[in-house]
Amino acid sequence: MAVEMLAYIKKQSRVHELSGATKLIIFLCWSTAAMLTYDTWILLALLVISFVIFRLSKVKISEIRFVLMFILFFLLLNNIAIYLFSPQEGVKIYGTSHVLWEIAGRYNVTLEQLFYHFNITLKYFVVIPAALLFIVTTHPSEFASSLNRIGVPYKIAYSVSLTLRYIPDIQREFRTIAQAQQARGADLSKNEKLTKRIKNAAVIVMPLIFSSLERIEVISNAMELRGFGKKKKRTWYNATAFRRADYITIVTGVVLLILSLVITFYDGSRFYNPFY
User: Fold this and answer.
1) Which of 52, 83, 163, 194 sits in a 20 to 30 Å window from 15, CA-based?
2) Could you give the count of Cα atoms lying within 13 Å of 275 in the half-sphere of its Cβ?
């Protein structure tokens, strides 16, 4: 918990210099391309580009490691669930069956199923860096202004901004309460039994909930005193005007989306089939 999760990481990079609206548009284009295609070559190309963009952002893996591991854990669960509920999905999609290992009944391991899982994993690895970069390289206030710029009501946009701002606050509050409880003898380390650690963690949860409710009340009162929501429009302190790099980036993102869709659907199928 030493590193804050899903918090804005301030750095000097080309990615950080782009406006929040640009990064939002690119993220939507990128996610759409990754979700709609099952063409392995397109996914591999997007994966390489995502790694290059991640390198340009100067964000270190260690700074987002916890969230990354958390997402990869759900990727593993997703692949297991797909196989348990549809072990022949790859065979249905690609129309052939190359059995590697027989297990029981319809549960066997085929090249087609493994290739299908490979594509699912590629999708995750294409979208995850883009999603994490969008969150950690965009200031919450600028993100809110970006949402408002593309047509989202500013009340909703500001709520999203408050949520993103509140995540690191919750983490700091949790660490403070945890250290106070540990000073009182509540051991949360691996030296304690799991059941005891869960019980000690519950001691932290209640103060955290009450402090969160108090913080929410303070913020809501402050917003009400300042007349938030009285007018239909508002200005944004952290709004960034579009520059040349923003326009070039948006055009590049739209072109990549169009190219991926054209290549994906030119033969009427979203799937690249190497088994024919």
Assistant:
1) 163
2) 18
pLDDT digits (tens, 9 = 90+) for 77-105: 999 999 889 888 888 888 888 888 888 87
Radius of gyration of the chain (CA): 23
Asked if 222 and 2 count as a contact pair (C-beta separation under 8 A), the reply is: no
Q: What amino acid is encoded at 187 in this protein?
A: D
> pTM above the 0.85 mark?
no
Query: Long-range contacts for 228-232 (Cβ within 8 Å, ≥24 apart)?
Result: 228/158, 229/155
